[in-house]
Structures are given as structure tokens and as C-alpha cells.
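User: Some background: our group keeps a shared notebook of sequences we're curious about, and every so often someone picks one and asks for a predicted structure to add to the entry. Today it's my turn. The entry only has the sequence so far, pasted here. Could you supply the structure so I can complete it?
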Amino acid sequence: MIHLSAWKSAAFLAALSALTLLVYSVFRNKTYFDFLTWNLFLAWVPFVFSFIAYEIGRRAQSRMRAAIIVALGAGWLLFYPNAPYIVTDLVHLTAMKGLYASGQGTFAFRYWYDLLVLVLFAWNGLLLCVYSLYQVHSLIRLAAGSLLAWGFVAAAALLGGYGVLLGRVYRLNSWDVLRDVSLIKRIALESLHAPAMLFSLLFGLMIGIVYVSFYFVVHQAVRAAKRA
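Assistant: Of course. Here's the predicted structure to add to the notebook entry:
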């Protein structure tokens, strides 16, 4: 896999988030937009885990470092669904459509401002999602080979989709796994029905498609630069 500088990636993503927050501060809707900043913060958590693991993993290997990477990987997997979760915040445009729609079937400019702000936050979440998955993918490929690494990517995408289901539909938080295991077990059983599984599958498919697209573009761009 092509090495992407973790520090340059972090700087780029931080600049993008700062720009998004600046736009948000200008167009902020005081009725319900406050949740966006918190969700963006949560989307950064898995990237922080993968960033540290990636930096440690690219150095000389040892049992202690391997144990640290495994612990960071567990934290990453627990918080990973928070990154793509922001896409579901677009639902608030539908929930609040009464504020936007006019009697003539048109939408006020407020709608378009809010839509673009939400899309910016969703784009941040998706980039944090694929960058952090790329870093973990690189580490697993280094340790276990390409086939197992791609198998992990597929599993992570599906688990990410299920995590989004638990967050959006069942209103669970990542830390509930540590705080109330019985609640997690009960909701996991409740979620075992066709519509919920289809939601998870489709969301996992979206994560996978976005990641493969990111992977393809990055690798093609680097190869083209080397040939030039």
C-alpha cells in the first residue's frame, strides 16, 4: 500500500474541519444545529486512535508495541461508526421541513444554507472514516497480508453500518458498551430483524464503496505522478 503521511493527513483534515466550523458559525441554525460540533468531535476520535496506532506500527516491532496497537485498534473499532454517522444528520432537514417549505412547493434559502452546512459536516465525517480505515488497513496488511487486510476492511465497513444503526435508530453511544453491557445485549437482540439488517448492510456497503473509491483514486494518482 502507498504510505500516506499521517501528519499531513491530520493537518489537512484539521484544516477542513476548521473551515467547516467557520462556515457553521456563519450559517448556524440556533434551533438544532448545536449537535453538529459534538458529532464532528466524535468523528475525530477513531482517527486519533488510528493515527497513534499507525505511527507506532510503522516503527520497529515489539510485543509491547503490538499490545498497544491492539488496544488502540479496539478503541478505534468501538468509535469508528461515529465518523460515517454524520451522514445520517441529513435527516434533520426532513424532520424540520416545516421551517423551510412554502405554500408554493418551494424552499426558502435557509434550507439550502442548512443543506450545504450539513453536507460539509458529512464530508468531514466520511473523510475521517476513510483516512482512519486506510491507516488500520495498512497496519493489518503489514502484519497479516493483503487478503486478510481486505477481509478486515469488509468486516469493518459492515460493523460500521451496524454501529450507525445502533446510534441513529436505537440511540446508543459508543461508550454504552463499557457502561451498560446488558443494554447492548438487549438492543442487539431487538435489532435482529430484516429492516434493521438491511439498513446496516446498505450503510456498510456505502462505507465500503466510499473507501474503495478513496483507495483507487489515491493509488492511481500516486502511480500517475511516478510515471510523469
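Suggested note for the entry: The chain has a mean pLDDT of 90. DSSP finds ten helices and no strands in the chain.
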